[in-house]
Amino acid sequence: MRDNEMLEKEEIFSKVLRAGRRTYFFDVRATKADDYYITVTESKKFTEDDGSFHFKKHKIYLYKEDFTAFKDILDEMTEYVVNHKGEEVISERHQKDFKKEYPKEESDSLNNFTDVEFDDI
What are phi and psi for residue 90, nearest 5 degrees? Predict the structure, then answer.
């Protein structure tokens, strides 16, 4: 049996989080000794100019002895971000297809001019 097939057999429990162009896979797997560990895989879709696409994947392995410390640090980091920057997501402006929308007042002021008739001159 190939390594990839073996990994699929070791998967015990899974959850998927789709987040825009990224997908996160959370998997509980079993070691050869039948102990459990977690893998977190980030898969990101990249589209080429010709319309074809590919995925880049990054994976971390998290073992039971590190669960508590990992969770504590993750909780601390997420709390820090929310406390300092709030929950509003502002990163969309950095995507290549982002189009800034101007508030009504600002866009109206760009077209603000006086209508003058020729006879008024």
Answer: -115, 0
φ/ψ of 46, rounded to 5, equals -120, 130
The pLDDT score that the predictor gives to residue 25 is 96
Closest CA to 43 of 56, 32, 30: 56
Residues making up the chain, counted from first to last: 121
Integer CA distances (angstroms), 79 to 18, 24, 86, 111, in order: 22, 20, 9, 44
Partner residues linked to 29 by β-bridges? 11, 37
In angstroms, the Cα distances linking 22 to 16, 17, 19, 45, 79 are: 11, 8, 5, 7, 22
Angle, alpha carbons 70-73-74 (nearest 5°): 80
Mean pLDDT, each 10-residue run in order, the chain (121 residues): 54 92 94 93 89 91 97 97 88 59 55 59 56
Residue 83's pLDDT is: 94
Q: Where does residue 68 rank: exposed (0-12), middle (13-18), buried (19+ CB within 10 A)? A: exposed
pTM attached to this predicted model: 0.62
